User: Fold histidine kinase from Shouchella rhizosphaerae.
Amino acid sequence: HWVELGAFLHSIVERFEMVVKDKNIDFHRHIAKQPTYVKIDTDKMTQVLDNILSNAIKYSPSGGNVTITLLHQGNKARISIADEGLGIPAESQDKIFERFYRVDKARARNVGGTGLGLAIASEYVHAHEGDIWVHSEYNEGTTIYITLPYSTFKGGTM
Ligand code: ATP
Ligand code: MG
Assistant:
C-alpha cells in the first residue's frame, strides 16, 4: 500500500538507534522534506532495509558513521545507506547480491550471517520495479543505493 517513504525511513532508523546503543555507531539522516509516496509491501521493504542497516553495523568498526539519505532523482526516489566499514573488494561487488555469497570466509567467520540478506533485498526491490546497487571502496566504506518509483501524493501515478 501507499507509504510516505521519508516517515517510513525515519521510523526504521529510530528502531535501529534504540537497539544498537552498545556498538557506538552514529546514524545521520538526510531525508527529503518533500513528500515521497511509494507503493510498497511494508513487511518486505522493512526486511530489505533491516538487512542493509544491519550489514552497515556488522561490517563497521565501533565509532563508525552510518548515513541514510533519501532524495528525488528524476522520476525515482533514491535511498542510500553509507557506512565507513570494511568495504567490499571490487571483484566481489557484483556477487554480494547472489544467494549465500559472503566476502572472504576469514572475515565472515567473525560475524554471523548466511549470505542471503542482499539476495532477498535484490529480489524484493526488483519486484517493486526498483533497482539496487553497491558502491564500495575496500577499507573505506560501502554505500548501498535503492531506487523506487514514487509520487508526490498518495495514489498518484508513478
Ligand atoms: P545475512 O544477511 O543472510 O544474515 P550476510 O550479512 O553475510 O548474511 P548479505 O547481507 O547478503 O549476507 O551480504 C553478503 C556479503 O556482502 C556479506 O557477507 C559481506 O561479506 C558483504 N557485505 C554486505 N554489506 C556490507 C557492508 N556494508 N560492508 C562490507 N561488506 C558488506
Ligand atoms: Mg546481511
The first strand starts at residue 2 and ends at 4. Strands lie at 2-4, 26-31, 37-39, 65-73, 76-82, 131-137, 141-149. The helical segments are 5-19, 42-58, 105-110, 117-127.
